Amino acid sequence: MTVAAPEPKANMGNPAPRYDAVxxxxxxxxxxxxxxxxxxxxxxxxxxxxxKGRVESFDLADANxxxxxxxxxxxxxxxxxxxxxxxxxxxxxxxxxxxxxSAEIAHDGQIIAVVIAETYEAAREAANRVTVSYTAVVPSAxxxxxxxxxxxxxxxxxxxxxxxxxxxxAKAFEDAxxxxxxxxxxxxxxxxxxxxxxxxxxxxxxxxxxYEPSQYVYGLKNGVAEQLGIDADKVRVVNPxxxxxxxxxGSMTPRTAIIAAIARRLNRPIKLVPTRDQGFTIATxxxxxxxxxxxxxxxxxxxxxLRHEGAEVSSRPDAYCVGGTKTTTRLYACPNVxxxxxxxxxxxxxxxxxxxxxxxxxLFALESAMDELAVKLKMDPVELRxxxxxxxxxxxxxxxxxxxxxxxxxxxxxxxxxSQRSPEPKSMADGDWLIGYGCAAxxxxxxxxPSAARVRLQRDGRTRVEIxxxxxxxxxxxxxxxxxxxxxxxxxxxxxxxxxxSELPPAPVAGGSNSTASTCxxxxxxxxxxxxxxxxxxxxxxxxxDRAKETVGIGQTPATRAAKSDRxxxxxxxxxxxxxxxxxxxxxxxxxxxPLDSFQAMHSGHVRLVGGHSLKDKIAYAFGAEFVEVRVNRxxxxxxxxxxxxxxxxxxxxxxxxxxxxxxxxxIWGMSSALLEATEIDERTARYVNDNFADYLVPVNADVPGxxxxxxxEQDDHINPAGAKGLGxxxxxxxxxxxxxxxxxxxxxxxxxxxxxxENIEV
Length: 763
Fold this sequence. Notes:
Layout: E1 2-3, H1 21-25, E2 41-47, E3 53-59, H2 61-64, E4 69-74, E5 104-105, E6 111-117, H3 120-129, E7 131-136, E8 149-152, H4 169-175, E9 178-186, E10 199-204, E11 207-211, H5 217-228, E12 235-238, H6 255-266, E13 270-272, H7 279-282, E14 289-297, E15 303-315, H8 325-328, E16 337-346, H9 359-377, H10 381-387, H11 405-416, E17 429-430, E18 433-445, E19 447-448, E20 451-458, E21 463-466, H12 476-488, E22 495-498, H13 515-538, H14 547-552, H15 558-564, E23 569-570, H16 571-578, E24 582-589, H17 598-603, E25 610-611, E26 621-633, E27 639-649, H18 656-675, E28 681-682, E29 687-688, E30 707-711, H19 735-747
């Protein structure tokens, strides 16, 4: 068998079918709650019916009479667990609120008891029979509730390091020829992945095995070990498939260590499958936000002043925030910029990462304001963005590694038919339906993290790739298999990929759209090590690439890596020369600007992502442009979005098929965030009202009759060996603004608070 030399990297990879398609459509993919356990007991949670106060007493008599009940665990005999730091402050936990620690209640739906029984049905019935007496205190629910506290995010959250500013905003705004000041609101939203927040724990002697849907098996492994006070080497996390995450599974929730501790005490495996409504309070969510945007411009449309002030709701103990001003202040050319992000503390469960965490709420404000400015200037919204396009971000002056924003606008506008738009509001109609066209920019930082991989190549070309990445539905198996096949020149069907297990070489969290860039860069490096080893066996006297430089991936671009591997291999001759039938290599890759402790942090489950604006001498983002057609019925005020068009540039597209699926889903979710999704909260009780799929609205097929995704070819040799920019979180950014901009065009009504429902329309 002859292995062909890898072709130089093109901008589009092979649109190969999904590696895991057959097992998923045939039901053979095993998710966390599918994992077989030997004689398991079943857990069911009892959650708080108040948002603030304390539990005075439990009446467990009726619950204990249910046949099959083994134990009911409350704070009175709850497991003694160690405190953890918040994920965004360098720890593992999505919240520092620890259930079953005391009688105190910190938020609605807090875990206050765990029922253990022989069957799920018995545990559920017993949980419903638990009677709780509370002393309730009036809670603070949201922004305007009495008792909330507000303070600047900077200094409270270690991941929020700056309020970007440059120049003299106050003077520039005062002197601006055209001014805009506007306020915007986004609601609480919940991830609602298809797979519930299940956890199964089994002890084998002193070793713990956890089956749990996770976006970061190494973080979960180390976090649970720390909370239980045991060695991390005694914990294994297994989840080969994850039924969606969207950020909700990136950090550790309190449930895992609780179930593990109870399983250890009972010396029996325990399976927990919480209900849909419990997922609203035992995991994280997208916090509601408020924004004030001030824009100053000259009459030709050039921005001269920009200020973005944002506020986010978090819990009492945790200063969680996403702080999207780091993106909005850098998107357009502007010499005078100011910003401020504040955290409002309320009696809520701690929010967390939700797909495109900073950009979805913050670009809604900026891109809506840009449309409003275009109206004031009587200028086409696309041209306003073109006038303010830039190759260098304004805060630090760093150049973009590549920036195809206006190329995306041009392609999307052409496909959408933007030139047919009549600019005046309410000027386009079809019978009883007012028609509106809207657009917005989208962007997302290109991030990467240290990653390791192990690759084994056999004489017959069969290849095994091991990496503790995560298949959360985005196509990780497929992309990793393609990467190995391309680098080694073997058929794709001969590559077997193993992910989702903390016993495999570590990979970063599957969040921040870093997975493809991180895992594929590591796999490419290790495959090159295998090729070099085989070449060396065949040509022992020929000088090869500096292996130390390969190990850390410094200076490796798609072009240079392709050139270094531009040789063909005859596997049989290579293995004959090597004197073996198999060759295996392990390697650890890190981005050029990664901290010195990156490899150590990687093994201990800590995140060291770099990219976006945090690179030393450049800035790296993926870009796109989104266009939306809305139709608003002039009598019923129904809102429809029959067409969504997006054009996206994200470096090398590793697999156009999986990329298109991700971007299509993002566009639909972006429309959903504008018109449908909001977690309603009763401000009197600080409790969620619509914690179910009957009342929490998500789009169905009838809501999205037309979605078009355009993939632009983009070459970026400055970001990572794969040349790839993350795109999983790119498409749902800006869509909410494009929808609202289209509603304005259709109705003449500017709506600045999401979601937009028919009762908000005043045609």
